[in-house]
# Entry
Amino acid sequence: MKFYSLVFIVLILFSCKDNSSQLQGQEKSDSNNYEITKSSEEWIKELNELEYYVLREAGTELAFTGDLWDHKSDGIYVCRACKLPLFDSNTKFKSGTGWPSYFEPINKTNVKEDTDYKIGYARTEVLCSRCGGHLGHVFEDGPKPTGLRYCINSVSLDFVERNKLKNTDHK
# Structure
């Protein structure tokens, strides 16, 4: 039993080490592919510690702790870092995961997808297409009509009530 536990731990450590070096190289090469690019120092001045950890370092907030996981108002969820519209409240659903979940983005061009190996296996990471901020991940276990579940960190989002939208041409 101890042998199998040791093998499992070694595999996880090896996989995380390999993947983190791949991600670091990728992060550097992708940094100029966004409309909004800022240095780490600039982002640190604009975001609080948790926002920076999630949006800029691809972290994850604890489940059931964000201010939007159980939010039910009518409106648009925008990127906290750059205010790009990302998800409409009409696509939000209760997934039971503790994070806000949506079955599709407001516009497919507003989100970028990438492969994330951070926990030892491939997942589809979701990023803001304007600033590259980490939003969360998308999974293929969502409701109809798409069958997708965009599992997004609350701290990556701000909410704008529909009646307060300045520009109704957000789709």
